[in-house]
Amino acid sequence: MERFEYASPGSRKEAVSLLAGEWGQTEVLAGGTDLVSSMKDRAVTPKRVVSLKKVSDLGGIRNSGKELRIGAMTTLRELIENQHVKRNHPALLESADYIRSEQLRNMGTIGGELLQRPRCWYFRLGYGLLAQDNGKPLVPDGDNRYHAILGNSGPAYFVSPSMMAPILIALGARVELYSAGGTREIALEKLYQTPTLANEREHTLHPNEILTEIIVPHPAKGSHSAVYEVRQKEAMDWPLSAAAVVLEMNGGSVSKAHVVLGHVAPVPWPSPEAEQALEGKAISEETADAAGKAAVSKATPLSMNGYKVQLTRVAVKRALLQAAQGGA
Amino acid sequence: MAETNCKYEWPAAGDRHLIGTRISRIDGPAKASGRAKYTLDVNLPGMLFGKCLRSPYAHVKITAVDTSAAEKMPGVKAVRVIQGPGKEIQWAGDEIVEVAAASEEAAEDAVRAVKVEYQQLPFLVNEADFDKDKSAGRTKPAAELKVGDADKAFADPEVVSYEGEYGIPVMVHCCLEPHGHVVEWVGPQSIRTFSSTQGVSAVPGQFAEALSIPANNVETICRYIGGGFGSKFQMDRWGLSTAQLAKDAKKPVKYLLDRDAELEVAGCRPSGFVKVKVGAKKDGTLVAWQSDCWGTGGPSPSGVLPIPYVLDIPNRTRRHTFILTNIGPARAWRAPNHPQAAALTMTAVDDLAAKLNMDPLQMLMKNADLASENRGKVYKEELQKAAELSEWSKYWHPRGDKASGHIKRGLGVSMHTWGGRGHNSNCQITIQPDGSVTAELGSQDLGTGTRTVIAIVAAETLGLPVEAVTVKIGDSHYPYDGPSGGSTTVGGVSASTRRASVDALQQVLAAVAPGLGVPADQLVAVGGKIQAKGDASKSISWKQACRKLGVKSVQTHGKNPGQCSLGSSGVGGVGVADVSVDTETGQVKINRMVAVQDCGLIIDLKTAESQCYGALIMGVSYGLFEEKLMDNATGRMLNPNMEFYKIAGIGDVGELKVHMMTGPGYDERGVIGLGEPPVISPGAAISNAVANAIGVRVPNLPFTPDKVLAALAKGGMA
Amino acid sequence: MKKEKLRSRKKEEGNEGFNRRDFLKGAGVAVSGGILAGETQAVAQAAEETSGVQGPGETPVTLRVNGETKHLNIEPRVTLLDALRDRLDTTGAKRVCDRATCGACTMLVDDRPVYGCTVLAIEAQGHEVTTIEHFSQGGKLHPMMQAFVDHDAQQCGFCTPGFVMACIAFLKTHHNPTLEDVEKGLGGNLCRCGTYEGIRHAVLQAAKTMTAEKEGGLANG
Question: Which residues in chain B touch residue C198, judged by CB atoms under 8 angstroms apart?
Fold first, then answer.
């Protein structure tokens, strides 16, 4: 790890004032499991680390009656134990349950989970987010078994690592961002972007801006949701592919579907193809499979990750069937 | 077989009070409480921390090294160029410069300040494609094995043959405690090393030779070691540089590898890929084998895989080609070459059984007599036991689970062999007049239970409880003992300890015989007492007995090998896997794993069983997850971490069943090693179970979803 | 970081010179993104004066470890695990993966299990750090440790302290666990020798012992 200055501001105002206006100079520290690891890998080498632990108004979960407002520094453990979350968003619990490490759940925050950096091994080995060696892209001809099958026309090939973003996006979550200029609120989906330049990041947060709150609307009456991850290990492991679904129902049929894929693209990947395939239909093995098929209809697998197309199709199907069975 | 009437022979079954029972490991409390001090935990006054600059390239020539900036960094006390200009680096991660500084952070900064220039050379880091290996000029054939006439046997119209391709990739040891040492100079020509090593008695000689100091001036200490699995026999290049830095800086230096280096350079199990043709008569009798095998263990040739494995098929031809690659160098991995051989043999036999519409367990049963050393009878007993434990007749079915749905269940079997003869060992037993007993051996406990075994043998011999014996190992100042490799430790230390303890007891008996009025040869030590054989009324407590020694302590020395045989060699075992495969996702889940194993006379059943449980778990891990992934673009290891070098977690291993073959027919063989054999079969058994479940062979381990789906797409039942 | 003169600056993830003034310039970059320049600079300056930026050199850090107060002078980049192991000779927690994966460094912070390898020591200030050493004080083994011994839930023992800590923490939230609970709840620790069979039994045994002790009033939690 490179040396860095450490700051632990007491307010959000102070926090953003300590952040530099361009990427690479400063990093925000939340739970630390990802940032400290990436600093050890030298995937990031900030000159200053700004901890948000002492910023008092970044924690807690509030229920406004129509939505939950989750402070970005809320730990995953706090999220899991929260009564409002349990009552309104069991799919979030399901998602957190896949993070099969009590230590990570105690340390990790919801904000950090959403903004963790990609696990792409080229990135972690120091070849940058776009995985280039002297300008030559390493992923297309390299070992891309865990890389993107959608949104992968380059130069970014990594997959978005967040395990909770897909379900939160499917639930229509928004995020509140804070900078010296004030507060802005955007759809969580808009927090993510596919970088095209080496000095861009995979999210749209400004370098001197912090994520302060995640706002999750209460589900529409009678809606169902579920998360399905395909992973190798039962113990803590990264998904090979994941799907999150929220179904708004009109009697026995789907009036509106929200299908978001995880670990298949540089961003959490909403699938309008799958959503359209479902609308007006009752969920059955056939319609769920058709939606899975639609979800990957535009997949463009790389040399070694064709299997992820199949996994994604199945993840969508199973998430839908799980949701339809009352699911989460 | 033990000679009769030898004073050292193991007690008869009825006279054993401790041997063969389940006894908790004596260093369990130290480990469970975190008090056990490993090499990584050694902190000496004034100690410096080492860090190493390693090559980021797989194959380069070093043209320049500039350490001047590093030397001026704050806290830096010494810098050593390990491989300088002109040296050719053969794998990424190889050592270039080591520094010693006052803190780990300062050492890390200094390493970053070293400037190295390289000249790039062509590299090869993946060997599975034999044609590419050939065109890269990286092949080197080994001597061919030819027994009988395979061609002629295959030509027999009565012979049914099967041709298949199988593979098992390079994997790493991933010892949780990394390789490395703490070295301090205790005199101008003397050092003390704290080393994470499998060879406490062997390491001093390596340091002495490299440093040109007398071997007796080197003391090596390893009280606890956090895993070795065959990879920790050497001082290693970084051991020498750590000693040199300690000399330069005049302070102790600690250097153990960081995790990435540990996975890149300190452990590599050679791969094996094979094209096999195997033939049998229609009744399943194996008659012919022909194989073309290739694999890599880094830049030098590694072992030839012993295939066909276990089964000495009468007509067999084996060709093996070493592929010389730019990956880290090979190190022995728990039963070197055997897990690969099982994975390349038992799979082919299983496929042939399927072609013959035979139950593969019956096929192994039928051919068990092809095993060397007339071990067919043992294998048959073990196959029978494994069939019972796995409920084989209930769960096995012909290829392809016909149940509806996407979860397919299957069973697979494999068998294995190992030597395990006890190594050279020396044990010194000291009995003090106050009754205290100490056993000293220059051995080490890898977690197999060596300490416990020594205590049990001494205690059994002296008629004492296990707690009455103090075991001192892990220091080269104790009598020489062999390195812990090849499952040789238990046979060595148990025999030397037995001999030393018997001799020590005789002296105690001689001292108390006059007082009891019973000849020494009519006395026995049992239950904390010395008493007349068959007459408990004539007895004296152990403590009182030892007081008769007066001021003299008893000190005896036992050796292995030595008088009368206390152990032998050659064990067998059977592994069964029961898996479920999700044919939609290619995920393989373990339902149950079974190990049936013989190892002669078992000293401690509890730690013996633990070896088998652990071997099953490690087998699941390499069967499903493990592979050293090397990148063709950069020449580097892509997964030098524990996130993507995946090892099984607690929820991944299924239900485990272990059965140790003991009793008549086994016990009289004496003690034989156990650490390695049960890890051999699981990979092959899992492969066969997957094939049984989905009706198609997935050729290469580990069974990750991509490979399983690819096999299903080719011809399975997806 | 010393306030050396700015030399060069890379665009992304730059390593080179960087000082307080650069932060302000950096803040200026964001200004073009629509933030009021005057306010930003004022805030930044105010923060500079009050936030107590520490390091990158050594700085005083006070830790509470197993009930004792420890004063250290360390750089902010030093992890809690390294502070304990390298500076306080508290070596029960092991450094293995060093990336929040294997659990060998598991310790409790305010009674919750964490990976010490990815907690900055400076961040642990004001919290109670409990390591495995705490649970065998006076030589008496914690029931979980005893269960590990009884079920031979250890071989080389290097993952063991981390596992014991994870198991102790696990039983605080699972008083009567099933085997499935155990397997799910301990997914954040890895063993290489393969001691999971013993660990599964040990946790189930310790759950019983500890419940019995509680019911018998022998322990108070």
Answer: 610, 613
